[in-house]
From TrEMBL:
Protein name: Sulfate permease
Keyword Transmembrane helix annotated: yes
Transmembrane segment boundaries: 21-41, 47-63, 70-86, 92-110, 122-141, 161-187, 194-212, 241-267, 325-355, 375-403
Subcellular location: Membrane
Domain of life of the organism encoding this protein: Bacteria
A Pfam short name: Sulfate_transp
GO biological process, one term: transmembrane transport
Keyword Ion transport belongs to the record: no
Bilayer topology term: Multi-pass membrane protein
InterPro entries named among the record's database cross-references: SLC26A/SulP_dom, SLC26A/SulP_fam
Keyword terms: Membrane, Transmembrane, Transmembrane helix
Amino acid sequence: MKPKILTTLPRYGWHQARADVLAGVTVALVALPLSIAIAIASGAPPAAGLVTAIVGGFLISFLGGSRVQIGGPTGAFIVVVYGVIQEHGFDGLAVATLMAGAILLVAGLLRAGRLIRHVPEPVIEGFTIGIAIVIAVSQIKDLAGMRGEGLPADFLPKLEALWALRGSIDVAASTVGVSSIAVILLLRQLVPKVPWLVVVVIGASVVAALALPSVENVTSRYGALPDGLPVPVMPDVEAEMLIALLPTALTIAFLAGIESLLSAIVADRMMGGAHRSNAELIAQGAANIASPLFGGLPATGAIARTATNVNAGGRTPVAGLVHALVILLALLLAAPLAGKLALPALAGLLVVTAWTMSEPHRWRARLQLPRADLALLVLTAFLTVLADLTIAIALGTVLGLVLRFLQGRISA
Protein backbone atom coordinates (compact mmCIF):
# COMPACT_ATOMS: atom_id res chain seq x y z
CA MET A 1 0.00 0.00 0.00
CA LYS A 2 3.05 2.24 -0.26
CA PRO A 3 2.50 5.19 -2.64
CA LYS A 4 4.56 5.02 -5.82
CA ILE A 5 5.96 8.50 -5.32
CA LEU A 6 8.00 7.20 -2.36
CA THR A 7 9.50 4.54 -4.63
CA THR A 8 10.36 6.82 -7.55
CA LEU A 9 11.77 9.94 -5.85
CA PRO A 10 14.98 8.41 -4.36
CA ARG A 11 16.30 7.80 -7.91
CA TYR A 12 14.83 10.97 -9.39
CA GLY A 13 17.00 13.12 -11.67
CA TRP A 14 16.85 16.30 -13.76
CA HIS A 15 16.35 14.41 -17.02
CA GLN A 16 13.20 12.71 -15.73
CA ALA A 17 12.04 15.91 -14.05
CA ARG A 18 12.11 17.73 -17.38
CA ALA A 19 10.16 14.92 -19.05
CA ASP A 20 7.58 14.83 -16.23
CA VAL A 21 7.05 18.60 -16.30
CA LEU A 22 6.52 18.58 -20.07
CA ALA A 23 4.09 15.65 -19.79
CA GLY A 24 2.24 17.30 -16.90
CA VAL A 25 1.76 20.53 -18.86
CA THR A 26 0.57 18.57 -21.92
CA VAL A 27 -2.01 16.62 -19.91
CA ALA A 28 -3.18 19.80 -18.14
CA LEU A 29 -3.92 21.43 -21.50
CA VAL A 30 -6.13 18.45 -22.39
CA ALA A 31 -7.71 18.17 -18.94
CA LEU A 32 -8.69 21.83 -18.55
CA PRO A 33 -11.41 22.05 -21.25
CA LEU A 34 -12.41 18.44 -20.68
CA SER A 35 -12.95 19.01 -16.95
CA ILE A 36 -15.17 22.02 -17.67
CA ALA A 37 -17.15 20.04 -20.26
CA ILE A 38 -17.68 17.08 -17.90
CA ALA A 39 -18.91 19.38 -15.13
CA ILE A 40 -21.39 21.10 -17.45
CA ALA A 41 -22.66 17.75 -18.77
CA SER A 42 -23.09 16.57 -15.17
CA GLY A 43 -25.34 19.52 -14.31
CA ALA A 44 -22.68 21.02 -12.04
CA PRO A 45 -20.97 24.44 -12.13
CA PRO A 46 -18.10 24.49 -14.68
CA ALA A 47 -15.59 25.28 -11.94
CA ALA A 48 -16.45 21.99 -10.19
CA GLY A 49 -14.65 20.06 -12.91
CA LEU A 50 -11.49 22.16 -12.51
CA VAL A 51 -11.58 21.77 -8.73
CA THR A 52 -11.82 18.00 -9.16
CA ALA A 53 -8.84 17.93 -11.51
CA ILE A 54 -6.80 20.06 -9.10
CA VAL A 55 -7.67 18.52 -5.72
CA GLY A 56 -8.54 14.98 -6.81
CA GLY A 57 -5.79 14.84 -9.42
CA PHE A 58 -3.12 15.98 -6.96
CA LEU A 59 -4.07 13.44 -4.29
CA ILE A 60 -4.39 10.55 -6.75
CA SER A 61 -0.84 11.21 -8.01
CA PHE A 62 0.57 11.90 -4.53
CA LEU A 63 -0.92 8.88 -2.77
CA GLY A 64 -1.61 6.46 -5.63
CA GLY A 65 -0.11 3.13 -6.53
CA SER A 66 0.57 3.95 -10.19
CA ARG A 67 3.61 5.81 -11.48
CA VAL A 68 1.66 7.65 -14.19
CA GLN A 69 -2.01 7.76 -13.21
CA ILE A 70 -3.77 11.06 -13.98
CA GLY A 71 -6.86 11.67 -11.86
CA GLY A 72 -9.83 13.98 -12.20
CA PRO A 73 -13.45 14.01 -13.36
CA THR A 74 -14.34 11.47 -16.04
CA GLY A 75 -17.21 10.82 -18.39
CA ALA A 76 -18.16 7.63 -16.57
CA PHE A 77 -19.60 9.68 -13.70
CA ILE A 78 -21.75 12.02 -15.80
CA VAL A 79 -24.85 9.83 -15.69
CA VAL A 80 -24.65 9.27 -11.92
CA VAL A 81 -23.75 12.85 -11.01
CA TYR A 82 -26.46 14.36 -13.19
CA GLY A 83 -29.12 12.15 -11.60
CA VAL A 84 -27.98 12.87 -8.04
CA ILE A 85 -27.92 16.63 -8.59
CA GLN A 86 -31.38 16.53 -10.15
CA GLU A 87 -32.83 14.59 -7.20
CA HIS A 88 -30.78 15.69 -4.18
CA GLY A 89 -28.98 18.87 -5.25
CA PHE A 90 -25.25 19.56 -5.15
CA ASP A 91 -25.12 18.96 -1.37
CA GLY A 92 -26.51 15.49 -1.97
CA LEU A 93 -23.76 14.83 -4.49
CA ALA A 94 -21.15 16.00 -1.98
CA VAL A 95 -22.48 13.62 0.67
CA ALA A 96 -22.61 10.68 -1.74
CA THR A 97 -19.05 11.37 -2.90
CA LEU A 98 -17.79 11.61 0.68
CA MET A 99 -19.41 8.26 1.45
CA ALA A 100 -17.87 6.77 -1.69
CA GLY A 101 -14.46 8.04 -0.62
CA ALA A 102 -14.82 6.37 2.76
CA ILE A 103 -15.86 3.11 1.08
CA LEU A 104 -12.81 3.23 -1.19
CA LEU A 105 -10.51 3.90 1.76
CA VAL A 106 -11.86 0.89 3.60
CA ALA A 107 -11.61 -1.24 0.45
CA GLY A 108 -7.96 -0.29 0.05
CA LEU A 109 -7.14 -0.96 3.69
CA LEU A 110 -8.85 -4.36 3.41
CA ARG A 111 -6.72 -5.10 0.31
CA ALA A 112 -9.72 -5.43 -1.99
CA GLY A 113 -7.86 -4.10 -5.04
CA ARG A 114 -7.60 -7.50 -6.70
CA LEU A 115 -11.37 -8.07 -6.61
CA ILE A 116 -11.67 -6.26 -9.94
CA ARG A 117 -10.82 -9.52 -11.70
CA HIS A 118 -14.16 -10.96 -10.52
CA VAL A 119 -16.24 -8.36 -12.40
CA PRO A 120 -17.13 -9.96 -15.76
CA GLU A 121 -15.61 -8.22 -18.77
CA PRO A 122 -18.95 -8.06 -20.65
CA VAL A 123 -20.42 -6.12 -17.71
CA ILE A 124 -17.60 -3.56 -17.76
CA GLU A 125 -17.87 -3.14 -21.52
CA GLY A 126 -21.67 -3.06 -21.43
CA PHE A 127 -22.00 -0.23 -18.92
CA THR A 128 -19.14 1.67 -20.61
CA ILE A 129 -21.01 1.54 -23.93
CA GLY A 130 -24.24 2.51 -22.20
CA ILE A 131 -22.61 5.50 -20.52
CA ALA A 132 -21.10 6.56 -23.85
CA ILE A 133 -24.56 6.55 -25.46
CA VAL A 134 -26.07 8.63 -22.65
CA ILE A 135 -23.19 11.13 -22.76
CA ALA A 136 -23.48 11.59 -26.52
CA VAL A 137 -27.25 12.13 -26.41
CA SER A 138 -26.95 14.55 -23.48
CA GLN A 139 -24.68 16.78 -25.58
CA ILE A 140 -27.10 17.25 -28.48
CA LYS A 141 -28.70 20.32 -26.88
CA ASP A 142 -25.47 22.31 -26.55
CA LEU A 143 -24.04 20.86 -29.74
CA ALA A 144 -26.97 22.26 -31.71
CA GLY A 145 -27.27 25.48 -29.73
CA MET A 146 -30.80 24.68 -28.58
CA ARG A 147 -32.36 27.09 -26.09
CA GLY A 148 -34.69 25.96 -23.32
CA GLU A 149 -34.92 24.30 -19.93
CA GLY A 150 -32.39 21.73 -18.76
CA LEU A 151 -32.84 18.17 -19.94
CA PRO A 152 -34.38 15.47 -17.69
CA ALA A 153 -32.08 12.87 -16.17
CA ASP A 154 -33.92 9.84 -17.61
CA PHE A 155 -33.08 8.80 -21.16
CA LEU A 156 -36.49 8.57 -22.85
CA PRO A 157 -37.80 11.85 -21.35
CA LYS A 158 -34.51 13.40 -22.47
CA LEU A 159 -35.20 12.34 -26.06
CA GLU A 160 -38.71 13.81 -25.82
CA ALA A 161 -37.33 17.10 -24.49
CA LEU A 162 -34.76 17.28 -27.29
CA TRP A 163 -37.48 16.71 -29.87
CA ALA A 164 -39.56 19.49 -28.32
CA LEU A 165 -36.58 21.88 -28.60
CA ARG A 166 -35.83 21.08 -32.24
CA GLY A 167 -37.24 24.43 -33.40
CA SER A 168 -34.58 26.34 -31.44
CA ILE A 169 -31.56 24.84 -33.24
CA ASP A 170 -28.92 27.50 -33.94
CA VAL A 171 -27.14 27.05 -37.28
CA ALA A 172 -23.94 28.80 -36.14
CA ALA A 173 -23.68 26.73 -32.96
CA SER A 174 -24.40 23.51 -34.85
CA THR A 175 -21.67 24.35 -37.34
CA VAL A 176 -19.15 24.97 -34.55
CA GLY A 177 -20.11 21.75 -32.72
CA VAL A 178 -20.22 19.38 -35.68
CA SER A 179 -17.08 20.88 -37.23
CA SER A 180 -15.23 20.42 -33.93
CA ILE A 181 -16.10 16.72 -33.89
CA ALA A 182 -15.10 16.20 -37.52
CA VAL A 183 -11.81 18.10 -37.23
CA ILE A 184 -10.78 16.36 -33.99
CA LEU A 185 -11.44 12.90 -35.44
CA LEU A 186 -9.64 13.73 -38.70
CA LEU A 187 -6.55 15.31 -37.16
CA ARG A 188 -6.31 12.59 -34.53
CA GLN A 189 -6.03 10.03 -37.32
CA LEU A 190 -3.42 12.04 -39.22
CA VAL A 191 -1.18 13.09 -36.29
CA PRO A 192 -2.27 11.06 -33.23
CA LYS A 193 0.41 12.35 -30.82
CA VAL A 194 -0.80 15.98 -30.90
CA PRO A 195 -3.48 16.87 -28.26
CA TRP A 196 -6.01 17.95 -30.88
CA LEU A 197 -8.87 18.11 -28.38
CA VAL A 198 -7.60 21.30 -26.79
CA VAL A 199 -6.30 22.79 -30.05
CA VAL A 200 -9.63 22.40 -31.84
CA VAL A 201 -11.75 23.57 -28.88
CA ILE A 202 -9.64 26.71 -28.49
CA GLY A 203 -9.68 27.36 -32.24
CA ALA A 204 -13.44 26.92 -32.46
CA SER A 205 -13.94 29.18 -29.45
CA VAL A 206 -11.82 31.93 -31.03
CA VAL A 207 -13.84 31.73 -34.26
CA ALA A 208 -17.11 31.86 -32.31
CA ALA A 209 -15.97 34.84 -30.22
CA LEU A 210 -14.86 36.83 -33.27
CA ALA A 211 -17.56 35.99 -35.82
CA LEU A 212 -20.50 34.10 -34.29
CA PRO A 213 -22.15 36.18 -31.53
CA SER A 214 -25.09 33.79 -31.15
CA VAL A 215 -22.81 30.97 -29.92
CA GLU A 216 -22.81 30.73 -26.13
CA ASN A 217 -19.66 30.25 -24.09
CA VAL A 218 -19.07 29.16 -20.49
CA THR A 219 -19.19 32.66 -19.02
CA SER A 220 -22.22 33.87 -20.98
CA ARG A 221 -24.33 31.01 -19.63
CA TYR A 222 -22.87 30.18 -16.23
CA GLY A 223 -21.10 33.37 -15.18
CA ALA A 224 -17.41 34.01 -14.61
CA LEU A 225 -15.16 31.21 -13.40
CA PRO A 226 -13.62 31.76 -9.95
CA ASP A 227 -9.98 32.84 -9.84
CA GLY A 228 -8.93 30.28 -7.23
CA LEU A 229 -9.95 27.33 -5.09
CA PRO A 230 -12.94 27.85 -2.77
CA VAL A 231 -12.68 27.45 0.99
CA PRO A 232 -13.45 23.82 1.97
CA VAL A 233 -16.93 23.37 3.46
CA MET A 234 -18.48 20.30 5.06
CA PRO A 235 -21.97 19.64 3.63
CA ASP A 236 -24.96 19.20 5.90
CA VAL A 237 -25.39 15.51 6.63
CA GLU A 238 -28.61 13.91 7.84
CA ALA A 239 -29.29 10.26 8.62
CA GLU A 240 -32.12 10.04 6.09
CA MET A 241 -29.88 11.45 3.37
CA LEU A 242 -27.14 8.94 4.17
CA ILE A 243 -29.56 6.05 3.79
CA ALA A 244 -31.07 7.43 0.58
CA LEU A 245 -27.68 8.08 -0.99
CA LEU A 246 -26.00 4.81 0.01
CA PRO A 247 -26.75 3.02 -3.31
CA THR A 248 -25.38 6.02 -5.21
CA ALA A 249 -22.27 6.11 -3.01
CA LEU A 250 -21.67 2.41 -3.69
CA THR A 251 -22.03 3.06 -7.43
CA ILE A 252 -19.57 5.97 -7.33
CA ALA A 253 -17.10 3.88 -5.32
CA PHE A 254 -17.46 0.96 -7.73
CA LEU A 255 -16.97 3.16 -10.79
CA ALA A 256 -14.00 4.98 -9.27
CA GLY A 257 -12.36 1.72 -8.28
CA ILE A 258 -13.01 -0.01 -11.59
CA GLU A 259 -11.93 2.90 -13.80
CA SER A 260 -8.82 3.74 -11.80
CA LEU A 261 -7.59 0.15 -11.68
CA LEU A 262 -8.34 -0.40 -15.38
CA SER A 263 -6.45 2.80 -16.14
CA ALA A 264 -3.50 1.61 -14.05
CA ILE A 265 -3.50 -1.73 -15.89
CA VAL A 266 -3.51 0.04 -19.27
CA ALA A 267 -0.63 2.26 -18.12
CA ASP A 268 1.35 -0.78 -16.94
CA ARG A 269 1.01 -2.35 -20.38
CA MET A 270 2.12 0.86 -22.09
CA MET A 271 5.29 1.35 -20.03
CA GLY A 272 6.04 -2.07 -18.53
CA GLY A 273 5.27 -1.06 -14.95
CA ALA A 274 3.38 -2.69 -12.09
CA HIS A 275 0.86 -0.67 -10.08
CA ARG A 276 -0.17 -1.25 -6.45
CA SER A 277 -3.91 -1.74 -6.53
CA ASN A 278 -4.58 -1.22 -2.83
CA ALA A 279 -2.58 2.00 -2.69
CA GLU A 280 -4.55 3.13 -5.73
CA LEU A 281 -7.86 2.51 -3.94
CA ILE A 282 -6.65 4.42 -0.88
CA ALA A 283 -5.68 7.35 -3.11
CA GLN A 284 -9.10 7.27 -4.79
CA GLY A 285 -10.71 7.30 -1.35
CA ALA A 286 -8.70 10.32 -0.21
CA ALA A 287 -9.43 12.16 -3.46
CA ASN A 288 -13.17 11.55 -3.19
CA ILE A 289 -13.23 12.75 0.40
CA ALA A 290 -11.30 15.94 -0.37
CA SER A 291 -12.85 16.88 -3.73
CA PRO A 292 -16.46 17.46 -2.52
CA LEU A 293 -15.22 19.55 0.41
CA PHE A 294 -13.89 22.06 -2.15
CA GLY A 295 -17.03 21.85 -4.29
CA GLY A 296 -15.68 19.22 -6.67
CA LEU A 297 -17.10 16.12 -8.35
CA PRO A 298 -16.22 12.43 -7.94
CA ALA A 299 -12.65 11.77 -9.07
CA THR A 300 -10.93 8.73 -10.50
CA GLY A 301 -8.05 7.72 -12.72
CA ALA A 302 -8.72 8.82 -16.30
CA ILE A 303 -7.63 6.29 -18.91
CA ALA A 304 -7.28 8.72 -21.84
CA ARG A 305 -5.40 11.36 -19.82
CA THR A 306 -3.15 8.71 -18.28
CA ALA A 307 -2.31 7.39 -21.76
CA THR A 308 -1.59 10.96 -22.88
CA ASN A 309 0.77 11.32 -19.93
CA VAL A 310 2.67 8.15 -20.85
CA ASN A 311 2.90 9.12 -24.51
CA ALA A 312 4.18 12.58 -23.53
CA GLY A 313 7.03 11.09 -21.49
CA GLY A 314 5.62 11.07 -17.95
CA ARG A 315 7.12 8.27 -15.90
CA THR A 316 6.61 9.24 -12.24
CA PRO A 317 3.79 10.72 -10.13
CA VAL A 318 5.48 14.12 -10.46
CA ALA A 319 3.83 14.49 -13.89
CA GLY A 320 0.40 14.13 -12.29
CA LEU A 321 1.27 16.67 -9.60
CA VAL A 322 2.43 19.12 -12.27
CA HIS A 323 -0.82 18.54 -14.19
CA ALA A 324 -2.87 19.53 -11.13
CA LEU A 325 -0.69 22.56 -10.35
CA VAL A 326 -0.83 23.83 -13.95
CA ILE A 327 -4.65 23.72 -13.89
CA LEU A 328 -4.59 25.59 -10.57
CA LEU A 329 -2.27 28.19 -12.14
CA ALA A 330 -4.64 28.52 -15.11
CA LEU A 331 -7.54 29.07 -12.71
CA LEU A 332 -5.60 31.73 -10.82
CA LEU A 333 -4.28 33.59 -13.86
CA ALA A 334 -6.46 32.79 -16.85
CA ALA A 335 -10.01 32.10 -15.60
CA PRO A 336 -11.55 34.77 -17.91
CA LEU A 337 -9.96 33.14 -20.96
CA ALA A 338 -11.16 29.66 -19.92
CA GLY A 339 -14.66 31.14 -19.58
CA LYS A 340 -14.61 32.03 -23.29
CA LEU A 341 -14.64 28.37 -24.38
CA ALA A 342 -17.61 27.84 -26.70
CA LEU A 343 -20.27 25.44 -25.40
CA PRO A 344 -20.86 23.70 -28.77
CA ALA A 345 -17.12 22.99 -29.03
CA LEU A 346 -17.09 21.56 -25.49
CA ALA A 347 -20.13 19.44 -26.38
CA GLY A 348 -18.30 18.21 -29.46
CA LEU A 349 -15.31 17.32 -27.27
CA LEU A 350 -17.58 15.16 -25.08
CA VAL A 351 -19.14 13.47 -28.10
CA VAL A 352 -15.63 12.49 -29.20
CA THR A 353 -14.92 11.33 -25.65
CA ALA A 354 -18.06 9.17 -25.73
CA TRP A 355 -17.02 7.71 -29.09
CA THR A 356 -13.58 6.88 -27.67
CA MET A 357 -15.15 5.33 -24.55
CA SER A 358 -17.17 2.96 -26.71
CA GLU A 359 -13.91 1.58 -28.18
CA PRO A 360 -15.21 1.20 -31.77
CA HIS A 361 -12.14 -0.82 -32.73
CA ARG A 362 -13.50 -3.61 -30.51
CA TRP A 363 -16.98 -3.82 -32.00
CA ARG A 364 -16.12 -6.67 -34.37
CA ALA A 365 -14.55 -8.72 -31.58
CA ARG A 366 -17.59 -8.10 -29.39
CA LEU A 367 -19.94 -9.45 -32.03
CA GLN A 368 -17.87 -12.64 -32.08
CA LEU A 369 -18.24 -13.22 -28.32
CA PRO A 370 -20.09 -16.33 -27.11
CA ARG A 371 -23.83 -15.71 -27.19
CA ALA A 372 -24.18 -15.63 -23.43
CA ASP A 373 -21.39 -13.04 -23.03
CA LEU A 374 -22.76 -10.91 -25.85
CA ALA A 375 -26.24 -11.05 -24.33
CA LEU A 376 -24.80 -9.97 -20.95
CA LEU A 377 -22.99 -7.06 -22.61
CA VAL A 378 -26.14 -5.91 -24.44
CA LEU A 379 -28.32 -6.32 -21.33
CA THR A 380 -25.91 -4.27 -19.21
CA ALA A 381 -25.75 -1.53 -21.84
CA PHE A 382 -29.55 -1.56 -22.19
CA LEU A 383 -30.09 -1.26 -18.42
CA THR A 384 -27.47 1.49 -18.17
CA VAL A 385 -29.25 3.58 -20.81
CA LEU A 386 -32.90 2.94 -19.95
CA ALA A 387 -32.95 1.93 -16.30
CA ASP A 388 -30.29 2.78 -13.74
CA LEU A 389 -26.53 2.38 -13.58
CA THR A 390 -26.68 0.78 -10.13
CA ILE A 391 -29.16 -1.82 -11.35
CA ALA A 392 -27.11 -2.43 -14.48
CA ILE A 393 -23.88 -3.03 -12.55
CA ALA A 394 -25.46 -5.14 -9.80
CA LEU A 395 -27.63 -7.31 -12.03
CA GLY A 396 -24.94 -7.65 -14.70
CA THR A 397 -22.31 -8.72 -12.17
CA VAL A 398 -24.59 -11.27 -10.52
CA LEU A 399 -25.64 -12.74 -13.86
CA GLY A 400 -22.02 -12.79 -15.03
CA LEU A 401 -20.84 -14.64 -11.96
CA VAL A 402 -23.71 -17.14 -12.28
CA LEU A 403 -22.79 -17.61 -15.94
CA ARG A 404 -19.15 -18.27 -15.03
CA PHE A 405 -20.24 -20.81 -12.43
CA LEU A 406 -22.50 -22.64 -14.89
CA GLN A 407 -19.83 -22.64 -17.58
CA GLY A 408 -17.35 -24.05 -15.07
CA ARG A 409 -19.81 -26.81 -14.10
CA ILE A 410 -20.47 -27.68 -17.76
CA SER A 411 -16.75 -27.81 -18.65
CA ALA A 412 -16.08 -29.94 -15.59
